[in-house]
Amino acid sequence: MNRIYELTVEAPPGDIITYDPVRLADAMRIDDPSRLAIEAMGSRALVTVYPSDPLADVRLPDPELLAMDEQGRIWIGRYHNGRKVYVQLYDPASGSAQRLLVFGTTGAGKSTLAQIILAAMKRSGIATFYGDLKEGQSAPEARGNVDWSVYSQEGVMAQLHTAWCVMKDRAARYAAAGRSKFLRDRPDPLLYTVIDEANRLLEKGAPYRDEATFYIKDIGRTGRSLGVGIALLAQAGHLDELGGSDTMRAMLKEGEVLLLRWTSSMMQQLVADGLLPPGQKLAPIPKRAGATRLISQFETEADDDRPGTQGTGYRISGPYPGAKMRAFNVGTPVPTEGLDPEILTLYGDGPPAALEKAAWPVAGRAYVDKLDSDAAYAAAFTPKDGEEGRGGDRARGRTSPAPAGGTPQHSPQRTIADRVMAVLETVDGPMDAHALLEAVNADGGRPVKLGSIRNALSDLR
Ligand SMILES: Nc1ncnc2c1ncn2[C@@H]1O[C@H](COP(=O)(O)OP(=O)(O)O)[C@@H](O)[C@H]1O
Ligand SMILES: [Mg+2]
After folding, report:
1. Structural domain harbouring 30
2. Per the domain annotation, does 120 fall within a domain?
3. Probe ligand 1: pick from 57, 59, 102, 112, max atoms within 8 Å of CB?
C-alpha cells in the first residue's frame, strides 16, 4: 500500500487542538510514529499518514542548488510533504542580513547543517567568519572554504570584534556616501559570523560571556541593515544559558530559528518564550526512526538497526512551524579517514569570498593574517593603558567589551562623565550606580569599574 492519507481535523472555534503524538499513533495503530505527521494550529490540524517514513532519505540533487536564490534564500532540506525548506540569509527588499539560530542536543545534526549552510554561503559569495568551539572537530571541511576560521574562544572573540568593527565602518562609509541601505555585492559582500557550539561561549561562567553577548546583540540589532549577519548553533538546556535571555529571546523571535532534536527543558523554554503559537505542539523527535515493539524474554533480541534521525527538526520561524523537516542527507555514509570528499563537493572548488578591501584596515591584522587563539585576541583587542590601571593586562574575563582602536561614536577621548551623561539622557526614571555601570559598559567603549562610575557621578553632582 503506497497511499498517503491526509486528515483535516477541526475543533469548535475557540478550542485549541492539543495532542500527544505517541498516543495518537497508538490509537491509529501506527507502530512507526515517523510515518505520522501532525501539524496543529489553533483549532485546526492536519494529520498525514505515510506508507513509510517520508524523511528517511532527503537528498540534495546537485550542490550547485545550494546557492542563494533571488529572494536571498538557501535550500537546506525538505518538509515531510516534500516541500522545500528554505532559510533566508538576505532580504533583497530591505537589503538586510539575517540572524540564524540552530538548536539541538548533541548528535542532532547541528554541525552537519552548519556545513550545508557554510557551503551555501560560499556558493553565494558571502564572506564568512566561522568559529568552532569544539576545536575544529565540528566541521573540518570548513577550513579553507570560509574566509576566516578559528577554533578557540579567543579566536571567536576576535571574529566578533572584527565583524563589529566592519559593521561600524560600513555605517560610516554608507552614511558618507548618502546610502540608506545595504545592497548585496554593490560593492560589499554579505558578511556572516557563524559560531558552532556557541553555548560554550555564552554559558554562565564562560570567560567572555558578557563581551560576546554585547557583540552578538549589537551585530544582531545593527548589522542587519549593513549586510552583517550572525548565525549561532548551540546546544542549550535553557535560553538564558545563552548569554542572557533577553537578548536571545528578542533575536529568536525575529530571526530564522531551526530546532533539531531537543530536550524537554529546551522545549518548555521555547514555549514559555512565546516562540511557538498557542496550541502549536511539536512532535518530539526520537533518536531513531522506525517501529519499536515489546520483546518477550522468550524471543531472541534483534539488533537495533533502525536509522538515526539526525538533521530532523522544525523550522519554527517559518510559515509551517509544526511541519517536520529534515536537512539534506550529506557526506559519505561510512566515516572516512581525513576530510569527507562528499562534504568537500558541497563547498565546490575555488576560494571563498573575502571581506571588502576597504574594511581591511579596520579589520586589522587578526583578520588579514587569519589569526586564531591568543594571537588573534591580542591583535584584535589592542591593549591600552587603562583608566583602571589595567596596564597592558589581557582582557580575559572582563565584564564588558573593549573595542580596539576606538570608533567614531566611542572615541577614546570621551570621559567617563560624558558616557554617564549619554546613558542618563536616554533613560526617564532613576537609575542606580550598578545599572549605570552596566549601561556604560554596554556602549562599546573602554570598560569601566564601579568606582569610576561613582567618582564620575560625584564630580557631575
Ligand atoms: N544532515 C545529515 N546528513 C548526514 N548525516 C548527518 C546529518 N546530520 C547529522 N549526521 C550524522 O550524525 C552525526 C552527528 O551530527 P552532528 O552534525 O555532528 O551533530 P551535532 O553537531 O548536533 O552534535 C554526524 O557525524 C553525521 O554522521
Ligand atoms: Mg556539533
Report:
1. 5-49
2. yes
3. 112
| Residue 366 in domain | no
Pocket of ligand 1 (CB under 6 A): 104, 106-112, 138, 310-311, 327-331
Q: 251 CB contacts (<8 Å, ≥6 apart)? A: 99, 101, 216, 217, 220
Give which of 359, 370, 379, 364 is closest to 129, Cα–Cα. Answer: 370
Is residue 396 scored above 70 in pLDDT? no
Grid cell for residue 38: 501532525
* Whether residue 144 sits in one domain with residue 16: no
Considering the domain boundaries, does residue 148 fall inside one? Answer: yes
Look at 33-47, 157-171, 289-303, 323-337 and tell me which has the smallest mean pLDDT.
289-303
- Ligand 1 center to 131 CA (angstroms): 18
Residues 39 and 86 in one domain: no
Task: Indicate whether 41 and 177 sit together in one domain.
Answer: no
Burial label for 222, CB within 10 Å (0-12, 13-18, 19+), is: middle
Which of 85-94, 363-372, 443-452 bottoms out in mean pLDDT, i.e. has the lowest? 443-452
User: 200 alpha carbon to ligand 2 midpoint, in Å?
Assistant: 12
CA nearest to 157, candidates 13, 448, 366: 366
Smallest CA separation from ligand 1 atom 16, residue? 109
pLDDT at 238: 67
Q: Is there a domain that residue 176 lies in? A: yes
Q: What is the mean pLDDT of residues 141-145?
A: 97
Q: Ligand 1, residue 197: give the atom nearest the CA.
A: 21
> How far apart are the CA of 437 and the centre of ligand 2, in A?
36
How many angstroms separate the alpha carbon of residue 273 from the centre of ligand 1? 28
Task: Report pLDDT digits (tens) over 89-105.
Answer: 999 999 999 999 998 99
Q: Same structural domain for residues 35 and 93?
A: no
